[in-house]
Amino acid sequence: MPRPTVSVLLPVRNGARFLALALDSLIAQTDVAYEIIAIDDGSCDETPAILRCYTALSTDLRVITGQGNGLSHALNLGLAHARGCYIARMDADDIALPGRLAAQCQYLDHHPNIGVLGTQALRIDPTGARGGRVRVPIGSQRVRAALAISCALIHPTVMLRRASLLAVGGYRPQFDGAEDYDLWLRLSEITELDNLPQPWLLWRQHNSQVSTRRALRQARGAALALLAHQVRQSGAADPLADQQTLAGWRQSFLEIADAPLRVHALTIAALVDNGGSLRRRGSAYLQAVCNRLNQSDPALTRRIALACVRHQRQLLRAGRWREALARWPVYLASCGVELLRAYFIHASILWRS
Length: 353
Hints:
Layout: E1 6-12, H1 16-27, E2 34-40, H2 47-57, E3 61-65, H3 71-81, E4 86-89, E5 95-96, H4 100-110, E6 114-124, E7 130-134, H5 140-147, E8 159-161, H6 162-167, H7 179-187, E9 192-204, H8 210-213, H9 215-233, H10 249-252, H11 259-273, H12 280-292, H13 298-317, H14 321-335, H15 337-345
Parallel strand pairs: 1-2, 1-4, 2-3, 6-9
Antiparallel strand pairs: 4-8, 5-9, 6-7, 6-8
Helix pairs in contact: 1-2, 7-9, 9-11, 11-12, 11-13, 12-14, 13-14, 13-15
């Protein structure tokens, strides 16, 4: 078969409810040679039957059977079978808008310095009704700056160069839940990342998603990914490179002063970004970190100040204005002038949704 330009990795596990819509949107893509690699990661619903049906209908679809070992393993398995020079991502509950693959492929063709390219997205609910626009930074410098704070790219919108992905070793399974953020940080050390200004994906949000069910684990993974990145940037070896899981992360960071506080602070910051601090346990976690913060690390204080402002904004949106006002003196005592600065920074595109 002719070599495709783009290989779309579509992992799925028990995704029968939305899978046909996702496949239809990919099969309808035009103006670029592509293949769809669906990785069935141990489904026990109607997913295998749907994939067999679509395989008979489209020669562009290949199905790979995984072992149910998680998203990163599934994506690495798909990558091993990919033949395109570009790797595109999409989840089995999302919908690619017409022209998405061609638009990203054209941009990467004309911008060889960009190794990873995401897009904006439009939220949809389980019924397909559209919600708000999900915005991410535009411009490689803004994306690079944003990566020090948040993920900065929407994983299922991304297209990246296969050579770059292989150069950093693909996805790391120990970071499942935050595997995308860990990957962007590692890729940022060898290439530039950017986002297109247009939305090219309908991004479905529903309560059965892993990001919803495992918010704390995801936030802890993001914190450890960022701290490992900072260690690599200092010229030292990655302390988590040989770890099969993140359970023993404390032993990996023994040589870093205040590592537990930094991990806890970055964890609650990521949890706040995902709305996790609105729950009682998350709110208490943020309070505990603020009580321990001593402002000796300006960058860490700045990050927690942003998290505090974000939390207050979420409280106000939830109608909990008394709680939001009561937290202000505590946050000011913990973060000082960085809290005041955070109110101005907070209005940037990093936090728009």
